[in-house]
Design goal:
With 658 residues, the chain is α/β, with parallel strands linked by helices. Helices cover 53% and strands 11% of the residues. Helix 5 links the parallel strand 4 and strand 5 (152-156). Helix 2 crosses helix 3, helix 4 (90-103) packs parallel to helix 24 and helix 6 (164-176) packs across helix 9 (215-227). The radius of gyration is 29 Å and the shape is globular. The two termini are 31 Å apart. The model is unreliable at 305-313 (pLDDT under 50). It binds one RNA strand of 76 nucleotides through helix 2, helix 14, helix 15, helix 22 and helix 26.
RNA sequence: GCGCCCGUAACUCAACGGAUAGAGUGUUUGGCUUCGAACCAAAAAGUUGGGGGUUCAAAUCCCUCCGGGCGCGCCA
C-alpha cells in the first residue's frame, strides 16, 4: 500500500511543480521522524526555494494550499522549515491493506526478460563453512525478493570442478593416503565425506608447504584433471560430484536450491573458451604482447591504465588472459561464462539431471556428452547478478570490461557484481574452537576463515548446534508435544536464527562471527519475529476455541467498524502498526533497488517489534467493544500475513508453536 | 606504489544529503493468576576517529591527516 501512495504523491507533486512553477525537479520522499507528523515527507521546497529565490516555507504553504487532492491522502501540511508532509486517510489505508493482504494474488513470474542470479559457488573439495552460508543466504534471499516482485529468475551455482582446490584433494588421496579410485568411491558414498575432505585438504596444504618441490605434483594433477585423463581425473570427478551433493544437502537445510549447476569441466571440454577467444581476438579486445614481462601472453588493457604511457609499460599493467604457454586464466573462463549467461557465446552446454531439490524440482548440471534433450533452456539472461565476495571485485571488473571491449555495452551495464564482505571469526571464537593464533591475529578484531588451513566453522556443525540449542528451549516449553513435531520446530527456529543472523548486516559489513551472537534467540533475531507470528496465531486459535467464527482465517470488519475505531483519539499506536504492515511492498522495492536484503530483515524485526508493543497494550480476547475487537483482530491478521510473507523472503518459516 | 572498503553508545550494528543520530546485546530497575515472559516498560550510555571545506541542512559529499581491512600473480 505504502509505495502506491508514495508514488502517487511524488507524481502529483512533480506535475504540480512543473505546471505551476515551470520547474522540472525530482521529488524525493522519506518518512517523517514522528508518527504525528504524517506518513510521507518531502524536502523538495528547499531545493525549489533556491531555484525560485523565495523562502521555502512560503513555497511549501502555497503548494499545500493548491495541490490537487490525491486518493488515499487526507491532507498535506507544511512542517518544520519547509517540509511538505502528507497525511494518509487511515481508514482507507487500513481497508486497502487488508484487502491487498488477503485478496491480492501473489505476483507470478512474468514471461518477461530473465534474470540470472549466480550464487554459492563453493569449490567442491571440502565441507561448506560459515562464509559460504553468507553468500548462499544473500543470493537466495535476493532471488526470493526478485520473484516476489514478479521477476523471472534463474539460479545458477557455478562448480569449479577442475581447479586447484579439487586437485589438491585428489593429490592428497593419491600421494598422502595412496587410495585407489575405487577406495575413494566407497569413501565418497559414506556420510560426511565433505568433512573427510575438509581435513585432508588442510593436510595437503601443510604437505605442500613443508617441501616446495612438491608443488610440481599439484601442477601435474591439475593438468590431468583439466584434460580429463588418468586416475587423477577419475578421482577428481568422484570427489567433486560427491561434495556437490553434500553442499546441496547442506543448503537444503537452509531452504536453498538451484536451477542449474554449470561446471568448469564443460567450459573446458565444450571449448567455450575457444569461442570467446575468437571473439576477443576478432574484435581487438585482447592482443598478443610482444615485449616486457608479459611477452607471449594475450592481454587485455583495462580502462584507466595505459593512456599516455608507452606500449611496453601499459602491457605490463594489463590483465593477462592467455598465458605464454597458451593456457587460459581464470578470468578468461569467466568471460566465456558471462558471455554464455547472456546468450552471446554462440554455444550452449548439454545438460543432465543431477539431483532433486527438497521441493522435487530437478537440479540440472552440465555435461559434455549428448545430455538430456528434455532439459529446459538455461542462460539467455537479460540481466545478471553475480554474488561474489568483495575481494574479487577487481576480477569482476575485468569480466565486465571484457564484455565492453567486445562491444556488448548493454550487457555490461546489466552485469552486476553483487558484492559483500566476508565472514570472519572473532579471535575468541577461533580460540574456542581450538585454533592457535599468532600474537598478531589474537590482537585483531577478527581473523579470516581459511578453508586451506581448515580454519572455520563448518556449516552443518553450526546448523546442528543451533538445532540442539533450539531443541532444548522447545523441550522446556512443550514437553507433551510429539518428538517429531518438536524436532521440526527446533529446525525452523535454528534456521530462523541462522538466516536472520547472516542477513541482518549490510553487505559491506564484515561479520565477525561469534557463537554467542549467532546462537541467540532473543532480541534482534529471527526467532523474535517468528515468536510474534506464533502469538498472533495463538490469539486466533483462542478465538476459535471460544466458538467465534472468523472468515477465511481472518477478521473482516466493515467500513463502519473501522471508522468507529479509527475516528476516536489515541489510536496512533494502532495506526503505526497498520502503516508498517502496509509497507512491505515499499520496503522490498527499496531493498531490491539497493540490492540490500538486510532491509527486508530489518523490516521483519521492526514489524514484529511494533506488534509486540501493540500486543502488550491491547488485550484482544477481553475487549468488550465487539467492533473494536474485530478491528484489532483484523490488524493482527494483517500483521500475521505480512510478517509471514517477509519471513518467507528471508527463507524463514513461522512455526506452529515455539 | 595504485585502487576499493571501513572507523557511530561499553560491545555488535542501523540511519535515500534532511527534522531531537536509532536498535539489539550487556548493565541497573520494574512487569507473568489476564491473548505465550524466546516478551514488555524505564534508566544510564554519543565531540559519529581528528581538522578543514561545500550546503538552507553533513555520520553521509569534497580535501587532508590518523587508525584498520582487502585487492592489484603467466593462482583460482
Amino acid at each position: 500500500m505504502y509505495h502506491e501512495l508514495e508514488a502517487a504523491f511524488r507524481e502529483q507533486l512533480q506535475k504540480h511543480i512543473r505546471q505551476r512553477y515551470d520547474v522540472q525537479i525530482a521529488v524525493t520522499t522519506d518518512r517523517p521522524p514522528k508518527i504525528g507528523m504524517g506518513e510521507l515527507a518531502t524536502p523538495v521546497c528547499f531545493e525549489l526555494a533556491k531555484r525560485l529565490k523565495r523562502a521555502p516555507r512560503q513555497i511549501a504553504q502555497e503548494i499545500a494550499n493548491q495541490l490537487a487532492p490525491i486518493k488515499g491522502v487526507a491532507r498535506v501540511e507544511v512542517a518544520g522549515a519547509g517540509y511538505l508532509n502528507a497525511y494518509f486517510d487511515r481508514r482507507e489505508f487500513f481497508a486497502s491493506a487488508l484487502m491487498q493482504a488477503y485478496g491480492g494474488a501473489p505476483k507470478t513470474a512474468s514471461g518477461g526478460p530473465k534474470i540470472v542470479v549466480e550464487h554459492t559457488n563453493i569449490n567442491p573439495n571440502k565441507a561448506a563453512h560459515i562464509g559460504h552460508l553468507r553468500n548462499a543466504a544473500l543470493g537466495d534471499t535476493f532471488v526470493r525478493m526478485l520473484r516476489f516482485a514478479g521477476e523471472r529468475v534463474e539460479v545458477q551455482n557455478y562448480i569449479d570442478n577442475t581447479g586447484v582446490q579439487v586437485a589438491d584433494v585428489v593429490l592428497g588421496f593419491l600421494h598422502l593416503e595412496r587410495k585407489s579410485a575405487a577406495e575413494v568411491r566407497s569413501l565418497a558414498a559414506a556420510p560426511r565425506f565433505d568433512y573427510y575432505c575438509w581435513d585432508l585438504y588442510a593436510r595437503v596444504t601443510t604437505f605442500l608447504e613443508e617441501d616446495k618441490s612438491r608443488m610440481a605434483l599439484r601442477g601435474d594433477t591439475l593438468k590431468a584433471i583439466e584434460h580429463g585423463t588418468g586416475g587423477e581425473a577419475e578421482i577428481g570427478e568422484i570427489v567433486s560430484d560427491a561434495i556437490v551433493h553434500c553442499h546441496l544437502r547442506t543448503m537444503e537445510r537452509l531452504g536453498i536450491s538451484y536451477d542449474v549447476l554449470p561446471r568448469e569441466s564443460e567450459i573446458l571440454h565444450l571449448k567455450f573458451w575457444d569461442s570467446a577467444f575468437t571473439q576477443l581476438k576478432e574484435r581487438g579486445a585482447i592482443h598478443l604482447s610482444t615485449a616486457g614481462k608479459t611477452a607471449g601472453c594475450w592481454i587485455m588493457r583495462m580502462p584507466g591504465s595505459g593512456g599516455e604511457e608507452d606500449a611496453a609499460t601499459s602491457d605490463d599493467d594489463a590483465k593477462i588472459i592467455v598465458r605464454s604457454n597458451g593456457t587460459v586464466t581464470y578470468v578468461g573462463k569467466d568471460i566465456a561464462y558471462q558471455l554464455w549467461k547472456f546468450g552471446l557465446l554462440g554455444k550452449d552446454f548439454h545438460y543432465r539431471a543431477f539431483d532433486k531439490s527438497a521441493g522435487g524440482e530437478t537440479v540440472w548440471t552440465t555435461t559434455s556428452d549428448a545430455g538430456d534433450a528434455s532439459a529446459p533452456a538455461f542462460g539467455h539472461a537479460y540481466r545478471v547478478y553475480n554474488v561474489i565476495d568483495s575481494r574479487q571485485s577487481y576480477l569482476q571488473n575485468v569480466v565486465v570490461a571484457g564484455l565492453r571491449a567486445l562491444g556488448f555495452n548493454e550487457q555490461a551495464d546489466r552485469s552486476t557484481h553483487f558484492s559483500y564482505e566476508i565472514v570472519a571469526l572473532t579471535p575468541r571464537c577461533a580460540q574456542e574452537m581450538g585454533y592457535e593464533l599468532s600474537a598478531e591475529d589474537a590482537g585483531r578484531s577478527y581473523v579470516e576463515v581459511s578453508g586451506r588451513r581448515g580454519l572455520g566453522v563448518k556449516a552443518d556443525d553450526l546448523i546442528t548446534k543451533l538445532e540442539d540449542a533450539a531443541r532444548k528451549e522447545v523441550d522446556q516449553r512443550h514437553a507433551d508435544t510429539p518428538e517429531a513435531v518438536r524436532m521440526k520446530i527446533a529446525h525452523q527456529i535454528a534456521i530462523g536464527a541462522l538466516r536472520y543472523f547472516l542477513l541482518r548486516f549490510a553487505r559491506n559489513t564484515i561479520i565477525a562471527f561469534d557463537f554467542k551472537d549467532a546462537l541467540s534467540f532473543e532480541g534482534e533475531t529471527g526467532p523474535y519475529s517468528q515468536y510474534a507470528v506464533v502469538r498472533i496465531r495463538s490469539i486466533f486459535q483462542k478465538m476459535i476455541d471460544r466458538g467465534k467464527e472468523l472468515a477465511n482465517g481472518g477478521a473482516q470488519p466493515s467500513r463502519e467498524q473501522i471508522e468507529h475505531v479509527f475516528s476516536r483519539p489515541g489510536t496512533d499506536d494502532l495506526w503505526e502498526l497498520t502503516l508498517l504492515a502496509g509497507s512491505l511492498g515499499a520496503r522490498v522495492d527499496s531493498a531490491i533497488r539497493s540490492q540490500e536484503p538486510a532491509f527486508v530483515a530489518k523490516y521483519a524485526f521492526e514489524l514484529a517489534q511494533t506488534f509486540n508493543n501493540f500486543y502488550h497494550k491491547h488485550h484482544i480476547l477481553s475487549e468488550s467493544d465487539a467492533a473494536r475487537q474485530l478491528v484489532l483482530l483484523a490488524l493482527c491478521g494483517l500483521v500475521e500475513r505480512q510478517l509471514v510473507a517477509t519471513l518467507a523472503l528471508l527463507g524463514i518459516d513461522a512455526p506452529a508453536k515455539m
